[in-house]
Amino acid sequence: MQQDIITSIDFGSKKFSATIAVRGKENLDILAVKSCKSIGIEKGMLIDSEKCKANVLNLLSELEIKTGKNVKGIAIGISSNKVRITETTVIVELDEDKVKSHDIIKALKKAQNSITISNDESIVDILINFYILDGKVIHKDILNWKGKRLEINLTLVIAEKKEIQRYYEIFKDTKYNIDSIKLNILAGKQIFLSEKNSMEYIALVDIGAGITEMAVFNNGIPKSVSSIPVGGNNITNDLAICGEFSFLEADNIKKIYSSNYKSLYIDDSLPDETEIGTIKVSRKLFYEVVNARIEEILSHINMKLKNTGHYDRICSIILYGDGINYFEDIGEIIRKIFKIKTQVVRKKDLGIKNPENITSLAIAKEVYDRLNLLEDAIIVPTNKSNDKINEKECLHNIEVENHILKKIKVFFGKIF
């Protein structure tokens, strides 16, 4: 990755979002954020690299023109489908009686060698959760602290090789390289978890177009990741079938009608059919179809969270994404399904024009943290064949606020 340019791409089922940022002396400076239609990805899985390639390359080219920057290295964000995590703690003796970047690199190598994975798997990311320096637990930046013995608690992200290889095929024979791979749902920590609200079990739930992803954190440490292949597109499909619309017509109706569909449904002074453009839509049909599917999606999420083994310890759920959150009175439906305190994050809460870009911003922030921790000299490209994952590619979970992420965390600080 270039020394001062950070580029990230969120590979969503509905949108690709890319961010270009500059690593400043004290902050991450966002230069541009842009999104485009997703092609080649279904329910969080990349199924057609060639179809995906054209849109991704065009997106990167537009960002380069807009910012005047030359992009080479990229951090990509992927779904948690066919991905697992495992937690471990490693110990290293400090060579210089103080913590240096090469000590952390040594710990990451040791962690990779300490776990057993199948021949079909690869370690794609390593998260640093906390340190123990000479018996003292430390959560903040530890570089240059004096000591003799360093323990690091880590979370290793493990994915199927064949699934990851498809992402490398997108950039084959181009000037771009994949420098690091992040899980989109784990990047959500950068946005939604703060020092105040992360000192307990918290579930993040991202309901997207084709997939819903979940991560359970305890004290900011990921304990489980999971996904279910349902999202906003399921609502669109139901409307298309029941109303005899095309998918695009149903999706457009959903966007226009969703913000007040309940109010229209209970207003007896209105005729059953309402016009949206040139299309007539039954208020009763829309309400019943949408409510039934939303309740079904939420019930699946609730069951999946129960299967994590952490459900009884979860204190709160943060639910975001554009799959269902823009529907009128969504909070009321959620309270019927979830017995745990749940905060629904809407577009206005994020404070940005295009909320689909929030994950690529979070990924850029993670890369910024990693660069600050491990220093430029040890950042090298990932092996494109993916036979060996670069042991120097980890992210660091220590907070360094920028103006966008800080604004969102202030919002949650008022809630928890």
Automatic annotation (TrEMBL):
Pfam families: FtsA (PF14450), SHS2_FTSA (PF02491). It comes from the Bacteria. Residues 6-192 form the SHS2 domain. One of its GO terms (biological process) is cell division. Keywords: Cell cycle, Cell division. InterPro entries: ATPase_NBD, FtsA/MreB, SHS2_FtsA. SUPFAM superfamilies: Actin-like ATPase domain. GO terms for cellular component: cell division site; cytoplasmic side of plasma membrane. This is Cell division protein FtsA. It comes from Clostridium chromiireducens.
